[in-house]
Amino acid sequence: MTFEYYMLPYCKPAGGVKWKTLGMGEVVDANRMASTPYDLAFRVERTNQRVCKKELSKEDAQKFRDAVRDDWYFQMYFDDLPVWGFVGKVEKIIPNQYE
């Protein structure tokens, strides 16, 4: 299932979310383009960079749990190229421990 990105409590850009004006094709496809706090560049390797520090309420944590359970995925564009990924996944490592 796709969703509006900020339906989940992701970190937002420092200056607030900016929404792109939609063209006719984007309106028909129901795409909503929004800014994110991610600083990406081609051919620049980065690992484990913190975007923000956020403490989740029980309700916010439950939103993420539900999205992972229901196989939600996101779609972003980077230099007009689509990127898809799942919100998360559950891996059972040992009984009663999940990652």
UniProtKB/TrEMBL annotation:
Family as reported in the entry's similarity comment: Belongs to the nonaspanin (TM9SF) (TC 9.A.2) family.
Compartment list: Endosome membrane; Golgi apparatus membrane
Source organism, top-level taxon: Eukaryota
Membrane-topology descriptor: Multi-pass membrane protein
Keyword annotations from UniProtKB, A to Z: Endosome, Membrane, Receptor, Signal, Transmembrane, Transmembrane helix
GO cellular component: endosome membrane; Golgi membrane
Gene source species: Monoraphidium neglectum
Main location as per UniProt: membrane
Gene Ontology BP, a term: protein localization to membrane
Protein's name in the database: Transmembrane 9 superfamily member
Pfam families: EMP70
